[in-house]
From TrEMBL:
Residues 156-258 form the HTH araC/xylS-type domain. It comes from the Bacteria. GO terms for molecular function: DNA binding. This is DNA-binding response regulator. CDD domains: REC_YesN-like. It is found in: Cytoplasm. InterPro entries: CheY-like_superfamily, Homeodomain-like_sf, HptR, HTH_AraC, HTH_AraC-typ_CS, Sig_transdc_resp-reg_receiver, Tscrpt_reg_AraC-type_HTH. It comes from Paenibacillus glycanilyticus.
Amino acid sequence: MLNLMIVDDEELIREEIKSKVTRLAHPLIGGIMLAADGQEAKQLLHDFKPQIVISDIRMPGLDGLSLIRDSFQTSPDVKFIVLSGYGDYEYVREAFKYGIVDYLLKPVRLSELENQLNLAVQLCLDSSSKEDIKATTNLSISEANPINSQSHISSKSLIGIVKKYIEERPYGEVTLAEVSNLASMNYTYFSTWFKEETGFTFSAYIMRLKMEQAKKLLENPTIRVSEVAQKIGYDNIYHFSRAFKNYTGLSPKDYRKCTNII
């Protein structure tokens, strides 16, 4: 999990951005810490090492630009997203020299925050993967296969988060585009990675979850087949019956008979 720090001398802005990050509920963002100025943020960077920082560019005392310069020397892997006003262009341009992810204009829009946060998370994952490759394979990054280069521990942790996200939502309402976005991977990369980790394509994995849930529901004789279909995301009972038979070799009614549930 990645930790995030929000730095702004205005409490209302800090809390507003925290609230928006919380609403986005990114599965790889864990703790959120707040700092009222650059000096406090510098100490938190040293003590708690957040991987992502959303920081105002202009603040009293140690400003955001100075914080970024300092972090560039001491914690170069930290990903900064800069908060700026319309008159801060020169500061933002200087910040880009130190490798910031991007900047957000105040007031921050939720969609723009989501895009920048996803990008920052992906950059963190890319950096982590590169370190894993260097430590375990002695291969140059350019020679490594991006799928095979994921560390075993990181991949297992991430696939666990992805599975949990899928299983906590109503079957039929989770799309590949949605989950790949939440995992901060592009559509094609995620599809390949997901199959490597689970042994199933995304659609086959979802179908398996649906059908296994249907089997459990069918074991309850008080639930009609049409209700089972609806509970796992099928509006049409005939489509459900066909899918269930393709999966199990039996129609829902025959499955109940074979399991003596009638």
